[in-house]
Design a protein that fits this description.
The chain has 244 residues and is an alpha/beta fold. It has helices at 19-29, 69-76, 78-82, 97-102, 120-130, 144-157, 237-242, and strands at 3-4, 40-41, 55-56, 60-63, 87-90, 110-113, 133-136, 160-163, 181-194, 197-211, 219-224, 233-234. It has a domain at 38-183: P-loop containing nucleotide triphosphate hydrolases (Rossmann fold, 3-Layer(aba) Sandwich), CATH 3.40.50.300. Helix 1 (19-29) packs parallel to helix 5 and helix 5 (120-130) packs parallel to helix 6 (144-157).
């Protein structure tokens, strides 16, 4: 198992150490900077309409598979990361640290772990003890019992568990219905092609938020995922006509 050292240059090879020792290093190095008394982690202005109270500590967020879903997930934690929170990417996640940095995650506070499938849930649980944000990409179907335990662990520790969409387009959602918030990307459209020629420069999409409890009321927002500068932001009315 390779654990990428957040302090190491992107071009360097991650150190390979035994899993228990690696997780101990993470726990020792990644003490949360945000105050434990804060009930929510901040989100970028693009998410104000979808998550008006920010990312509540202890909450679980599920991303449905779709164009731009991974970009949306990474951008969701960018504001908290910039404010000092540590984040972890766990599992066979279809993203590299450079892409995470482009949407605003602080690479010096990002842990990347790809454990063996049989240790996946144990590693996710350990990181929920150590960092504020855990992006969990499941290697396969998550057993219902494991999913319940991870959701309970996040709630107990005050971490935010972000369930990433499946790697395979043909696969079903690997997570049972356990999330407090669900985000779905719909109606994507690209900007940049004209008359069959050109470059794809930006993507617009509607993001639909739902969930349970206080999040059960459906909310919608039109976002750039991303815009021409690689940023995730709200799509203004003039953008709809002119492009980014």
């Amino acid at each position: 198992m390779a654990l990428a050292d957040p302090a190491e240059p992107l071009g360097g090879a991650p150190a390979r150490v035994p899993l228990p020792a690696a997780l101990r290093q993470v726990v020792e190095r990644s003490q949360p900077v945000a105050l434990a008394g804060e009930r929510s982690l901040p989100v970028a202005p693009a998410f104000d309409a979808l998550l008006p109270q920010g990312l509540r500590r202890g909450a679980t967020v599920a991303l449905r598979r779709g164009p731009g879903a991974t970009t949306l997930a990474l951008a969701l934690g960018a504001a908290a990361s910039a404010a000092g929170s540590w984040a972890a990417l766990v599992g066979p996640v279809p993203v590299n640290p450079a892409a995470a940095g482009e949407v605003g995650l602080a690479l010096e506070r990002l842990v990347v772990v790809d454990p063996p499938a049989e240790q996946w849930s144990t590693v996710v649980a350990a990181l929920l003890d150590a960092v504020d944000l855990v992006y969990a990409g499941a290697p396969g179907r998550v057993p219902a019992g494991d999913a319940r335990r991870l959701v309970a662990r996040a709630r107990e520790r005050g971490a935010v568990l972000i369930q990433l969409p499946p790697l395979s387009r043909a696969g079903d959602d690997p997570w049972p219905a356990t999330a407090d918030h669900r985000l779905t990307v719909a109606d994507p459209s690209w900007v940049g092609l004209g008359g069959g020629a050109g470059r794809l420069e930006a993507r617009r999409a509607t993001v639909v938020a739902g969930g349970r409890g206080a999040a059960s009321r459906e909310r919608r927002a039109r976002l750039w995922l991303p815009d021409r500068d690689g940023q995730v932001r709200a799509c203004e009315e003039q953008d709809q006509v002119q492009g980014p």
